[in-house]
Amino acid sequence: MVSNRCKTVVKEALKKLGLHFIVVDLGEVEIMETISEEQREQIKLALYKSGLELMDDKRAMLIEKIKNVIIEMIHHSEEAIQINFSVYLSEKLQHDYTYLSNLFSEVQGINIKQFIIFHKIERIKELIIYDELNITEIAWKLNYSSVAHLSNQFKKVTGLTPSHFKQLKDRRRNPIEEIGNQFITDASSDKHT
After folding, report:
1. What is this structure's pTM?
2. Is 191 within a domain?
3. Same domain, yes or no: 79 and 68
């Protein structure tokens, strides 16, 4: 689950099945009742119809939590990012960062740092398009050491400088749910060749 829309879909699916939830958060749900295997399958089917997936695998759930924490911090937080991501992830998920990093790389085909960079670049694009902050303010908000650092990273990922991107008429952005997924497809096709 990577958006508030996903949370709404999950809540509605649970209500239709007559289940009561305590928490529906990004990547996890706590239900008041003990559910039967039949109810579990009904939930799974309802989520699947909405483009979501019920996850049972602990490793997959942890990967989803890593993604959700990163997305929440970069895309949904109004506060400036002032903490190191590795420290934040370790504290938030109660796991050693090395373990999280190795698991993420193994399963996703990219490392956490790359995933964070791709999301930061998407957020920069969004902030440039909204035109509410200048590049200096964006650099501060996303915890870049300087405007030059932001600009270099932006150009490395997009091939454009932030100012050139701002001038483009067709400012294409990627949906949050799709960021980083192309590497899974690329990595799996590499394994088959």
Report:
1. 0.65
2. no
3. yes
